[in-house]
């Protein structure tokens, strides 16, 4: 095997989406999933211990820790097959204890795991729709029982054991809550589900029989032995309360927590995580918050005691981003002193638990467990020479600076664009970052990153500083641009790649650049010439990474063909197969003895150089995604790798069982950059603090002096009281008997003598002290005066010596100045003579040039005049062009307005059609009553047919009007009249419709009346028949019969009936007259329509004549323009001829030539004749335009739509 060994010393990252992905092993040791395994992290000592997964694993999907914290169960995937593995954490290093065979597992991977209370059994659950619950005796690798559960959809599910029963298992998910009991080799369900099914996202056991669940609607539901015991309403955190938290400082970032109110209001609350502890439980009811509950003995099952918020991310461009993180798992330490949470953005937070007695506020804040981590694929990694730092950039739009010796994050900043590549300057004070919009040159300050320069390189996927830092290369598509890192000038562009460039490397002496691309090309460039020196092209391979040996003679390249290539002298010298994987990154040590390769599975391979042909290398499980970048430090002690899973591994490199030793111990610089504004702010803050301290000192001194004054006053008062008491006693003693007074006087005298002796002693001691102080002071003053007198003497001697030196130097300087002045005078005289000669020569040449300039000035003046004339003509043409443009714009506006009018008319037509459709519906309803009003329905149908004919006539008219509109788009005034006519017609149609509606209503009312009359008549007939039958009984008695018939007449015959009979005769006459008037109205309407058609035809004829006249006017204008241009050309030729003749006249000639003069006179006459002819033609055209402009049909169209001809201006130009 290879003698090269790499050991991970730090892992920076966190794997997302792992069920129970973080847990405690001890009070200060946290275990969480990262890369292709998990890592142990000590909270105080900050050491890392990485536990790799099984070979070729794609990372852990679920984790579970045994109750005794000794065993770890993990669900992994190897070659698309699910595997359950149990690790023994007590051994050092942690080893794999059991692997449960894949044949006995379901097809899908387990998404939740749980150990029994004694740690002997393991429960595993797979996600729906074909979910399984398996029950294992893991030490013997035996599957004890399995249950299949079919549920709709694929959602989050969770499994857990009862804390006091190995056989009782709880299984929750979308639409089910099930309790199982293991007995006799099967899992039997204990509960019956009642009520509406809920989507249970999480659950935890509070006691032997109580389980509390959280749903996606924000509900907390408590079950006891499978029965619903308690349920809350929708738990929702009010955004207003959230806003009130801005003022509270966070623990780790020293800023307040915030959240996007809009997202909070839009997203429904859901309990995403829940965990129990001895006093109650903690849950996450909405993004960015954990709420602690304690059990109570009252009516309510529990009460809220504290809210814990995620801190605001001070490194992010969006400071509210942390509040939008969903908390997916909560865990407590064994002593329940600390709580750790995991979010869906790969971040870990910690909170120190306090008792209710020590809780100051109801709201508290998390801290970062270590520091902010990358939450997306890492696209760039680089190191520097001066400092022990590495820079990374990621698709999460952040750039971070890490220290690989202390394993800490030094700088972090998040931007608005994605970062594709990063490169550190050798000093470690600057870095280059390629964003999606620009390439930025960034200064690494003490606490911030400051953008110093932006370069217009879009989507730069690769950049690199030179070894000395004075240059840097940036990839722009398939071109490598070389810039100066001092002036930022583009020095050179290296062109030749046909594919996308994936890697660029500099040689140690900065004379060469090596690059590779996706089309299988590896080129070596010479910077001095900018040309390609050597190349090696293999089109079947897409290269992803290259590296160089220290002498830049050997190139190591990896790509898609699963080999590591050793290239030198433009050819592949050696190839090492990858044995079933794809190499994605390569790094070579500076000593040249070690080569490290990263694979697409996330593993790291370490091999010696020269490269082996067989599998003679060490392979390490590290990342869960493809390795994107690798780098080795300059002392070859650390290997740094980054991956698509967002994790960073720091490896310690060993060779032959010993750490690689560098020739010199690495000494790193401690300098940092600070902005002047930051220094000013800090100095101002220090001054403010100093002033505040002085103010506090003065206040304290003042208070102390007040206290001293109070104490002295108290002493004086006590002395006076004592003296007053003595005098009082003396005064009283005179009044008392002599025997008592003598005794008391003796006592007082003795006290007084003692006090006198004490005061004398005190005075003597103070006098001695004062005398000693005066003596010491006088001695010190004498010593100081002697010391400073000696110093003064020494300084005076030095001053005298310096004055003498100054005098000598002044004398020497005066002599030097004299010599310089003499030399300068001689040089000035020589220069004066020389330049006088040059002046004389220049004057002569100037005189010659002046003559030439005079001639040239004349030519220039003539040319300037011609230029002015031409400019004037151009300006006139521009003005005419502008006028035409305005005219075309006005025509376009007219067209748009007419189109809008057409659209509006089509809309009105559609509305009318809708109304007609409604009328047809009403007609269909009226047809149902044919047996009552047949004759009136027939009349209504006739009216409707007449109306439809009118509508069709109107449609035809509208169609004809639209055609006329397309023909004459410029006739706006005529169309306005048509629009008014159509509006009148539409209003008339509306009136007709309202009349028809009124007629329909009247018919409905009449029908109801007739029905009512019919019913009344039937009732009357029945009554009349009954009464008539009664009268028929008196047929044998005539008197009674006559009286009965009279009563029937008086009872059933009334005056109103007679009136109705008379009215019935009047109604037909009214109907006849109404029909007569309606027919007359229809005839008049038809006449009106015919008149309108005749008028419309007349208007169409006028329009066509107008169009023909407009065309003729345009043709005349074009002819006029052509005539003007000819006139201008003739004038210009006349002027040129006159100038030539003037020049010929002024020129001296010995013999007169008569022939040119005769020719010149003939040309002048011809030109004058041509001008007269052109003027006559223009006058004729004007007369024609005026005659056509006076016609009545064309006048309104021309005045509105055509611009006026500037005939006067053209006439003036002709006359000139």
TrEMBL record:
UniProt cross-references to InterPro entries, sorted A to Z: Beta-prop_EML-like_2nd, CFA-57, WD40/YVTN_repeat-like_dom_sf, WD40_repeat_dom_sf, WD40_rpt
Sorted UniProt keywords: Repeat, WD repeat
Source organism superkingdom: Eukaryota
Pfam family, one: Beta-prop_EML_2
Stored PROSITE patterns: WD_REPEATS_2, WD_REPEATS_REGION
Residue ranges annotated for the EML-like second beta-propeller domain, each copy included: 379-653
Protein name: EML-like second beta-propeller domain-containing protein
Species assigned in the record: Melopsittacus undulatus
Originating gene: LOC101876626
């Amino acid at each position: 095997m290879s003698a090269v060994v790499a050991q991970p010393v730090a892992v920076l990252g966190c794997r997302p989406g792992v069920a129970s992905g973080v847990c405690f092993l001890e009070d200060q040791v946290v275990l969480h999933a990262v890369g292709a395994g998990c890592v142990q992290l000590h909270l105080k000592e900050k050491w890392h211990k990485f536990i790799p997964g099984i070979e070729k694993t794609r990372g852990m999907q679920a984790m579970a820790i045994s109750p005794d914290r000794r065993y770890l169960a993990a669900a992994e995937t190897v070659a698309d097959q699910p595997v359950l593995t149990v690790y023994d954490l007590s051994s050092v290093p942690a080893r794999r204890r059991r692997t449960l065979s894949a044949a006995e597992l379901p097809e899908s991977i387990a998404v939740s795991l749980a150990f029994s209370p004694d740690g002997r059994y393991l429960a595993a659950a797979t996600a729906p729709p074909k979910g399984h619950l398996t029950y294992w005796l893991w030490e013997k690798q035996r599957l004890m029982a399995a249950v299949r559960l079919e549920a709709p959809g694929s959602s989050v599910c969770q499994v857990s054991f009862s804390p006091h029963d190995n056989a009782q298992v709880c299984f929750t998910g979308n639409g089910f809550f099930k309790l199982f009991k293991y007995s006799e080799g099967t899992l039997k369900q204990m509960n019956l589900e009642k009520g509406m099914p809920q989507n249970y996202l999480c659950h935890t056991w509070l006691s032997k029989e109580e389980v509390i669940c959280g749903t996606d609607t924000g509900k907390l539901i408590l079950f006891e032995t499978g029965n619903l015991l308690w349920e809350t309403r929708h738990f929702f955190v009010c955004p207003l309360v959230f806003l009130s938290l801005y003022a509270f400082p966070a623990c780790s970032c020293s800023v307040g927590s915030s959240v996007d109110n809009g997202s909070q209001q839009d997203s429904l609350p859901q309990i995403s995580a829940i965990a129990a502890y001895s006093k109650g439980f903690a849950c996450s009811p909405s993004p960015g918050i954990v709420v602690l509950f304690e059990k109570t003995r009252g009516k309510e099952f529990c009460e809220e005691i504290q809210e814990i918020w995620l801190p605001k991310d001070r490194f992010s461009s969006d400071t509210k981003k942390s509040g939008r993180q969903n908390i997916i798992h909560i865990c407590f330490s064994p002593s329940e002193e600390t709580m750790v949470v995991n979010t869906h953005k790969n971040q870990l937070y910690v909170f120190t638990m306090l008792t209710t007695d020590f809780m100051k506020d109801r709201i508290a804040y998390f801290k970062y467990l270590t520091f902010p981590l990358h939450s997306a694929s890492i696209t760039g990694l680089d190191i520097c020479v001066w400092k022990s730092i590495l820079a990374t950039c990621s698709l999460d739009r952040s750039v971070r600076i890490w220290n690989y010796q202390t394993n800490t994050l030094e700088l972090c900043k998040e931007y608005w664009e994605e970062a594709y590549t990063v490169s550190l300057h050798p000093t470690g004070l600057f870095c280059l970052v390629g964003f999606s919009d620009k390439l930025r040159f960034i200064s690494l300050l003490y606490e911030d990153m400051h953008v110093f320069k932006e370069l217009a390189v879009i989507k730069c996927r690769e950049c690199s500083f030179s070894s000395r830092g004075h240059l840097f290369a940036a990839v722009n598509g398939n071109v490598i641009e070389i810039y100066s890192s001092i002036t930022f000038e583009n020095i050179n562009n290296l062109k030749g790649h046909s594919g996308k460039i994936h890697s660029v490397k500099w040689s140690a002496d900065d004379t060469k650049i090596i690059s590779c691309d996706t089309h299988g090309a590896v080129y070596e460039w010479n910077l001095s010439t900018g040309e390609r020196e050597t190349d090696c092209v293999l089109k079947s391979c897409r290269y992803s990474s290259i590296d160089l040996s220290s002498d830049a003679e050997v190139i190591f390249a990896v790509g898609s063909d699963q080999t590591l290539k050793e290239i030198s002298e433009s050819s592949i010298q050696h190839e090492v197969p990858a044995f079933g994987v794809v190499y994605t990154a390569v790094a070579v040590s500076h000593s040249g003895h070690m080569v490290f390769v990263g694979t697409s599975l996330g593993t790291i391979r370490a091999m010696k150089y020269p490269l082996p042909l067989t599998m003679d290398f060490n392979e390490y499980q590290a990342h869960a995604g493809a390795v994107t970048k690798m780098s080795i430090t300059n002392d070859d002690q650390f290997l740094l790798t980054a991956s698509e899973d967002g994790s960073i591994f720091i490896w310690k490199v060993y060779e032959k069982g010993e750490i690689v030793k560098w020739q010199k111990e690495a000494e790193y610089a401690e300098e940092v950059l600070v902005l002047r504004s930051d220094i000013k702010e800090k100095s101002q803050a220090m001054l403010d603090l100093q002033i505040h301290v002085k103010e506090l000192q003065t206040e304290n001194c003042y208070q102390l002096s007040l206290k001293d004054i109070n104490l002295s006053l108290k002493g004086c008062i006590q002395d006076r009281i004592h003296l007053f008491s003595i005098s009082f006693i003396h005064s009283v003693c005179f009044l008392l008997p002599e025997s008592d007074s003598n005794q008391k006087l003796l006592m007082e005298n003795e006290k007084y003598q003692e006090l006198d002796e004490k005061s004398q002693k005190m005075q003597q001691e103070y006098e001695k002290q004062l005398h000693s102080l005066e003596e010491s002071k006088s001695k010190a003053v004498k010593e100081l005066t002697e010391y400073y007198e000696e110093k003064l003497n020494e300084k005076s001697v030095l001053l005298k010596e310096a004055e003498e030196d100054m005098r000598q130097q002044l004398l020497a300087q005066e002599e030097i100045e004299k010599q310089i002045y003499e030399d300068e005078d001689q040089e000035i005289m020589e220069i004066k003579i020389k330049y006088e000669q040059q002046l004389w020569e220049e004057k002569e040449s100037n005189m010659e040039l002046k003559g030439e300039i005079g001639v040239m000035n004349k030519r220039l003046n003539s040319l300037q005049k011609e230029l002015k004339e031409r400019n004037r003509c151009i300006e006139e043409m521009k003005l005419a062009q502008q006028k035409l443009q305005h005219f075309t714009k006005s025509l376009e506006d007219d067209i748009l307005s007419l189109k809008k009018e057409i659209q509006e008319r089509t809309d009105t037509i559609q509305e009318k059609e809708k109304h007609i459709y409604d009328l047809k519906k009403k007609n269909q309803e009226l047809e149902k009553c044919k047996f009552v009003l047949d004759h009136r329905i027939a009349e209504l149908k006739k009216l409707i047919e007449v109306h439809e004919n009118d509508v069709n006539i109107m449609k035809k008219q509208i169609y004809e009007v639209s055609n006329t509109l397309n023909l004459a788009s410029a006739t706006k005034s005529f169309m306005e009249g048509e629009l008014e006519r159509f509006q009148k017609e539409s209003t008339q149609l509306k009136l007709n419709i309202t009349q028809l509606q009124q007629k329909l209503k009247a018919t409905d009312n009449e029908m109801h009346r007739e029905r009512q009359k019919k019913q009344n008549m039937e009732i009357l007939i029945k009554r009349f028949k009954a009464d008539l039958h009664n009268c028929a009984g008196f047929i044998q008695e005539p008197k009674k019969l006559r009286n009965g018939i009279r009563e029937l007449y008086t009872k059933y015959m009334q005056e109103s009936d007679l009136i109705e009979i008379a009215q019935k005769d009047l109604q037909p006459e009214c109907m006849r007259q109404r029909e007569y008037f309606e027919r007359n109205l229809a005839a008049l309407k038809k006449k009106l329509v015919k008149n309108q058609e005749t008028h419309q035809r007349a208007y169409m004829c006028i329009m066509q004549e107008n169009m023909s006249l407009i065309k003729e006017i345009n043709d005349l204008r074009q002819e006029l323009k052509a005539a003007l241009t000819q006139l201008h050309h003739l004038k210009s030729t006349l002027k040129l001829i006159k100038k030539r003749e003037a020049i010929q006249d002024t020129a001296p000639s010995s013999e007169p030539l008569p022939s040119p003069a005769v020719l010149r006179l003939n040309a002048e006459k011809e030109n004058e004749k041509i001008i007269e002819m052109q003027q006559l033609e223009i006058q004729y055209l004007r007369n024609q335009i005026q005659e056509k402009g006076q016609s009545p049909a064309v006048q309104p169209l021309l005045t509105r739509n055509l611009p006026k001809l500037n005939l006067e201006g053209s006439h003036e130009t002709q006359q000139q």
